[in-house]
Write a structure and sequence with these properties.
Helix content is about 60%, strand content about 0%. By secondary structure, it is mostly helical.
Length: about 150
Amino acid sequence: MHGGSSPPQVKYNITMSEYLSLFLFFLQLILNSLVILVGVLVTVAFYTLAERKVMAGIQRRKGPNVVGFWGVLQAIIDGLKLVLKENIIPLKADKVLFIIAPIISFVLAFSAWAMIPFQAVSTLSDLSIGLLVLFALSSLGVYGIVLGG
């Protein structure tokens, strides 16, 4: 044993206004992320509804018109059905990777939306290499599919 002393303790003097500004920054980041996420999900839901209506017209049958007004809630019901389905995990699969794989794909797909500027001041991240990061995130999405089997 050597008689060395412990490393010096560094004290950070953070004021309440700095805590508040940090809290407001993260709150704004979370709210902007939620606005983008909800906007993308609603857009996809209406595209799905439009696709089903067109397919029904091509096949000369009624489209989704049961759930909600003109079938507007059909995409939400389909999403709930997908989430609440019985989860079947293969016996020889790695259970942790099998469960995490769709989460990886989802997070990578939606984090790519952070690079897209919707307005001059409304981008979620201000990267000078945003297109490169967008391509990188898009190419990493395949790992969720590979890990899921």
